[in-house]
Known about the structure:
The structure holds 2 protein chains of 2 kinds.
Chain A: E1 10-14, E2 19-24, E3 32-38, E4 45-51, E5 56-58, E6 62-67, E7 72-77, E8 86-93, E9 100-101, E10 105-110
Parallel strand pairs in A: 1-10
Antiparallel strand pairs in A: 2-7, 3-4, 3-8, 5-6, 6-7, 8-9, 8-10
Chain B: E1 5-7, E2 10-13, E3 19-24, E4 31-38, E5 42-50, E6 53-57, E7 64-68, E8 74-78, E9 87-94, E10 104-105, E11 109-113
Amino acid sequence: GESVGLHLPTLSVQEGDNSIINCAYSNSASDYFIWYKQESGKGPQFIIDIRSNMDKRQGQRVTVLLNKTVKHLSLQIAATQPGDSAVYFCAETGGYSTLTFGKGTMLLVSP
Amino acid sequence: KAGVTQTPRYLIKTRGQQVTLSCSPISGHRSVSWYQQTPGQGLQFLFEYFSETQRNKGNFPGRFSGRQFSNSRSEMNVSTLELGDSALYLCASSLPAGGHNEQFFGPGTRLTVL
C-alpha cells in the first residue's frame, strides 16, 4: 500500500483507550479546521470540522478542541478501536476548497 | 451515490515523459481540487477548478497543469517528469458555492517516475 506513514509521529494505544492527537496550525486567518483520517490505500476521509469562532465540537466518539491563543488543534477519540488505526491529518482553510494540511500522525491501536 | 474516482490507480513513467491523470467528481459537485502526497512533504495543494476555471493554485512549477470539463471531470498533466514527481496524486470534489465545503477525496493515482 501507499507509504503515507513514513516519517510520521506515531501514537500507540490499546483498544478501549481514549486517544488524543494534536496539531499546531500556522494561519491565524483560517476560518475552518478539519480532521481527516487516511487508511492505507485510500484517500483522506473527513472526520469532523470546527469553525474558528468555536472552541469545541463533538461528533460520534470524536471531539475536536481549538485553542486559537496558541494555534493548537486536537482530536480526541473515545474508546479507540482497531478500525481507528490510520494516519490522521489536521487541515485548515480560509475558504473555498484550498486545504493546508499538517504533517499527520499515525495512530496504531492494539487489540 | 458513487464516490470520487481517479484513473489510472497506478502509473509508471520515466524521467522526461509527460503524464495525464483523470478525476471524476461526485455527481453534482462542481469544485475539483488536486493534491500531491509524498512521505517527505505530506499533502500539498496543487490547484482547484470550479466551473471550468482555475480558482486557486498552489506553489508548484508550471510543469503541473490542469483543466476541468463542462461535466466537472478534471485532468491534471505533468510534463517533463522528474524523479521527485513520484507521489500519490489525490483529487477531491466538493459542492459549489463559496465558503467551506466538505471535500471528498478519491483513492489517488500512485505515480512512480523512474
